[in-house]
């Protein structure tokens, strides 16, 4: 087992580091930068089918559900497609309003999650198009869905998903660009900007990993706290949800992710002196609003750990601690924030002496209902 970890103390740490390569594998051979487009030759959808899609329904569980929420924001922004996201365990017992023009996307790392499989089987009756995004070649979902987009992140051993999560995000960028171009919603130049940033991601991820010693110190500072909050807006909101999930899974600290604008509708009441609040505040159109949220939080005595753009000269005035991530296209920065916060979760759990690769009560893949 030591050999399989290639010198890393845990599979999770190894897999976090592998993201410099795994992300590249997800988009390898698929970027057509000059044309401002992507190639997804694995999709069997005709142009007419794509034009006729009236809604996208994403179904997934756990970390894949967080990726799904991310997908909703991307498909809306890049492809102008109305998108809903459902927990598979809810979708299968609801009365979803579906027709043949709803595209269903099932996201499942393992391809074996019982609820996700049951949900996609329910969709068959609508005779609509389905796409599975999965990491495991030949997994059950690949036989249930009409189309498959593989994430190619390589096997993931740590129960807490890391490289498979960011690979799912990459697959969703590809899909959103593809749909946006096919539906004449996204301009080639807009697609080129995203594609350029995608190509730069591996190098940017390396820059985040290079800060592991600082993130380790930050983690140690708050490892004894009872509660942790993660806030973000826009695409940084699903990133906040995923960061909270990662921390609770492996460190057993109570953690919640919140849309920052919702703070005043409940969670503010829980903040005490010293409660850590991680604010994902990379530059995007919600930046000013995030600064107001940070001030609200500080006014209640909470401590703010900001995840911010390296070019941000202001943030140090508002936050107690700052984890800087490389500046990139605002649509892409949540990938970098996610990697930084995977490290925060990892080092918090390490500090607490938790069994990182096999957290209590959790399984890598839940194949029972
Ligand atoms: C389990 C794992 C999670 C994962 C979820 C969904 O709960 O511990 O890490 O996100 O299942 O798994 P899937 O394979 O469908 O993505």
TrEMBL record:
Keywords: Aminotransferase, Cytoplasm, Glutamine amidotransferase, Repeat, Transferase. The chain holds residues 238 to 606 of 606 of the full protein. It comes from Methanohalophilus mahii (strain ATCC 35705 / DSM 5219 / SLP). It catalyses: D-fructose 6-phosphate + L-glutamine = D-glucosamine 6-phosphate + L-glutamate. It comes from the Archaea. This is Glutamine--fructose-6-phosphate aminotransferase [isomerizing]. Its EC number is 2.6.1.16. Its main location: cytoplasm. Homodimer. Catalyzes the first step in hexosamine metabolism, converting fructose-6P into glucosamine-6P using glutamine as a nitrogen source. One of its GO terms (biological process) is fructose 6-phosphate metabolic process. The active site is at 364 (for fru-6p isomerization activity). One of its GO terms (molecular function) is carbohydrate derivative binding. It is found in: Cytoplasm. Residues 46-185, 218-359 form the SIS domain. One of its GO terms (cellular component) is cytoplasm.
